[in-house]
Amino acid sequence: MLIFGSLFSIPSAATKTLPFKTKLLYSIIHIHPNNNQKEYNHMEQLEVNGKSYQILKLLGKGKGGYSYLAKDGSQTVVVKQIHHEPCDYYQFGDKMAAELRDYDRLHKIGIPMPKLLDADVSNERLVKEYIDGKTVYEMVLDDTLPADCIGQVKKMCGVLYPANTNIDYFPTNFILQKEDSTLYYVDYECNDYMEEWNFENWGVKYWSKTPEFLEYVKNHIDNAQ
């Protein structure tokens, strides 16, 4: 199971005129010169508010952080480390504050998301509930996406739009939980509602093998080689 994290984003109002771009995940250990943060290795430890978590593997890298599968004793969780790498298609403020603010906003709206278990503001780390399942992206790729997933995301839209909110509808950000077939939005990012970036006008283009989806797959494979 792979969580890609926030690899794609709904551009902010200030960047709406920029072309849609992506940043693919990678797993090479790399020291970032801008902030001296690194991508952590398998079996390393990360501390969150004094509590140690053993890193099992990198799940994904997004424009805002690295997400790791980790263990605290017998509990499996996701630890997200915020990074400050430059991004040429998105403008950031305080990333940690935005994560907490967006989680609170979506929680109040009632969007199914991984629970936020802990937040270490000084080290810019989050501990999130681990959702076991496949991403919508993986299921589209394998032709195994249940029709009910579209119904579930539209149900989310039914409460998001009246609350003047969009989420990032790219399929890597959604996981269908194995246990009860609930669709979870595993990223916390949200923005004020804009019709051109809603599910019907943008997100749905990537929820089946459309030309847009297949073009992304082609570019993803080409860039990963």
Description:
The chain is of the alpha+beta class and 225 residues long. Helices cover 22% and strands 25% of the residues. The strands form three sheets. Strands 1-2-3-4-6-5 form a six-stranded antiparallel beta sheet, with helices on one face. It has a three-stranded antiparallel beta sheet with strand order 7-9-10. The chain has a two-stranded antiparallel sheet with strand order 8-11. The longest helix has 15 residues, at 95-109. The model is unreliable at 1-37 (pLDDT under 50).
Keyphrases for this structure?
three-stranded antiparallel sheet; Phosphorylase Kinase, domain 1; 225 residues; six-stranded antiparallel sheet; 22% helix; alpha+beta; disordered N terminus
Q: How is the CATH topology named?
A: Phosphorylase Kinase, domain 1
How far is the first residue's CA from the last residue's CA?
Answer: 21 Å
**Count of domain modules:** 1
- Unreliable spans: 1-37
* CATH superfamily placement: Phosphorylase Kinase, domain 1
Structural Rg:
17 Å
| Biggest beta sheet attributes | 6 strands, antiparallel
Strand order across the largest sheet: 1-2-3-4-6-5
**Overall pLDDT, averaged?**
81
Quick recap:
Helix content is 22%, strand content 25%. With 225 residues, it is an alpha+beta fold.
